[in-house]
Amino acid sequence: METVPPRVRAYVACIAACASVLLLPLPSARGAGETVALLAVLYAAGERTARRHLAGTFYPVLLAGAFLLPPPAAALVAVPGALLSPGAGRVTPLRRVWRGAQLVVALWAAARVHGALGGRAAVTAADFPAVLVPAGAAVLAFCLVLATLDAAVLALAQHTPLRRTWRTVFPSFPAPVAVHGLAGLMTAVLWSSRHGPVAALLVLLPMYVSGWVFAQAHRERTAHQETIRALVQAVDLKDGYTRGHSERVGRASVMIARELGLDAQRVEVLRFAGVLHDVGKLGVPTRLLRKDGPLTPEERRVIELHPEYGHEIVRGISFLGEARSAILHHHERLDGRGYPYGLAGPQIPEPARVVAVADAFDAMTSTRSYRRARPVSAALEELRRCAGAQFDPRMVDALVRALGRHGWHPAVTSDEPHPPRPRTPAAGTAPPPTTPAGPEPAGPLTGPAGPDAMPGPGGGR
């Protein structure tokens, strides 16, 4: 309460006072009073359940009230549920008052628009499609009022222009409220029919079940994101030298996948693969990841175990799917000179070929302590030069097309807080040049073949 600015408190008080006026006169007719009471109980119960299990608001009952009742009575339906329902975290009295007041104003406006367009008579007569236009106008009014009230309180709290906050807030309203509006309209039509309120519940129950299923899927997706974030943070803590590299590789992998026309599920899997491709560094001794100077052949062999370590770490995470194969094989090469298994050509899984190109591209376009970032055009030219030997030409072409269409805008500066100093690159980075070959390091095919050869731009540690 103490953190709420006085101007916001004053604004909430004004809206609450306006809502109190709009509730007058209270519904007195017996039929309207019973409908208000039944809808208010349904909304309060639905809102309490929705807040606990759906992480949202259950609008169909409110909008059914706007389609069935005059404005003051429709607005009254929201009051008990808004004042008594639980919320996420600590819900202060001020927040409850604000929630109730904004719903009262929005429902009053929706019912007023609906009634002015003859909507209540059309609902009573079950006159389709005549009921659709008034209902659509009422839903739009409901969205506009809610968005405007929310935008105003945010503008006051954040010292931002109302127009800017409104443009941010409003797009989140129409689609879900329109779906709830259709359910509310069917509820109102059945409520007014000879079957009565019991039949209306046949609309609300499937709506709630579908909302619960969606909420469960959203929670599962959130848990997936948290799992991945935790793994990436663990890698960054162990080797902060390449901090941000994983997220950028995930972004480039998505660009390639979309250019290839893969479905949304596979695009998501490839994002996971890109973000987690270096998770195996958790199994590599920190002293090797942070070692200054060249690695010995034995140390390099230890470093080259990180794809296998990564595969073991994520083996039991079922939702990663094909991403596991990309984590294991993203250092393989088409010519069979990669690691850990020396796969060649079509033996290399497609997700691994995507991540290999994304990894190499970000390594070349990111500044490291031992060299400056290459321009995007130079990095793409290097990828083209190595296509067919190290990289899949189809993936390289897809990245070139995607970058030509969307560009590449992530930060390319090193995250190290200290001045650069020479060191051996970490996983996913290009090795420093060993000969004075100009300002850029040698290409990815430079050096002898074999397990101890210096890897290309996507190799490194």
TrEMBL record:
Ranges for domain HD come to 242-364
Where do transmembrane segments lie in this chain?
57-85, 137-157, 169-191, 197-215
Domain HD-GYP positions: 220-415
Annotated Pro residues bias: 430-442
Q: Where is the composition biased (Low complexity)?
A: 443-455
Q: Where is the segment annotated Disordered?
A: 409-461
Q: Which PANTHER family does the record match to this protein?
A: CYCLIC DI-GMP PHOSPHODIESTERASE TM_0186-RELATED (PTHR45228), LIPOPROTEIN (PTHR45228:SF4)
Its signal peptide is none
Looking up Pfam families in the UniProt record yields: HD_5 (PF13487)
Q: Does the keyword Transmembrane helix apply?
A: yes
Q: Which domain of life is it from?
A: Bacteria
Q: Which InterPro entries match?
A: Cyclic_di-GMP/3'3'-cGAMP_PDE (IPR052020), HD/PDEase_dom (IPR003607), HD_domain (IPR006674), HD_GYP_dom (IPR037522)
Which keywords does this chain's UniProt record carry? Membrane, Transmembrane, Transmembrane helix
Write the lineage as a comma-separated list.
Answer: Bacteria, Bacillati, Actinomycetota, Actinomycetes, Kitasatosporales
> Per its record, how is this protein called by name?
HD-GYP domain-containing protein
Keyword Membrane listed? The answer is yes
